[in-house]
Amino acid sequence: MTISIPNIGLGTFRLKDQVVIDSVRTGIEVGYRHIDTAQIYGNEAEVGQAIAESAEHGTARDELFVTTKIWIDNLAHDKLIPSLKESLRKLRLEQLDLTLIHWPSPNDAIPVADYMAALAEAKAAGLTKLIGVSNFTNAQLTQAIAAVGAAEIATQQVEIHPFLQNRKVVEFARSHGIHITAYMPLAYGKVMQEPVIARIAERHQVNPAQIALAWALQQGFAVIPSSTKRANLESNLKLQGIVLSAEDMAQIAGLERNERLANPDGLAPVWD
Asked: Among 59, 217, 156, which Cα is nearest to 225's?
């Protein structure tokens, strides 16, 4: 059975405490079935609570696709699986749908092959259905493929929005048949202020966020926008029927300016 990653998910980066509980519960209520969290977000327990509360209101666990990400402190072979078990405990789950390496080991202090092997062991042990990577350079992805095989890497999750289109990374992943998940697809709301996107949105009678998401989906990416407002959560889901023309796509392609928003010092690799 092939498990596919739902193409629209709910991101939870920067959301804490009751805010994340409300966002996830409302998201599930309005139709999200893909929830994305991470060990470093410090909100796995709250996400787990929201999932449990949603189950009480009729949304069963097996309707949801839940992703978490292994933090760099847990990449050592003896730490990865125990940390994932702790994530499962916090999330109140028996199994993740997808577990990603959040960032490659800084300066490759721990070899890619080591933690990919541990992640593959976690999958073999039934802790997660799928495994993948995030924020990998093409060289690191090459090493990951050598370690576990391209077919085992369910997705490469990277920052993609109209102002950072990450074309080299996308092309390389695709050349190996690896799916792409776009995080920060709305560039922290900057797409809403972009006149080109606003004009396209006006033509389609939708909002700029919907255009930015439709642009990513039309390229075959999954997207994981986050929001705390019900109206935005709802509109971010309503993308069916938005078909951008070749001209629309070309105009948005022209917005590329290598504007990287997630580039933490001491953590980020040397990007392609």
From this structure: 217
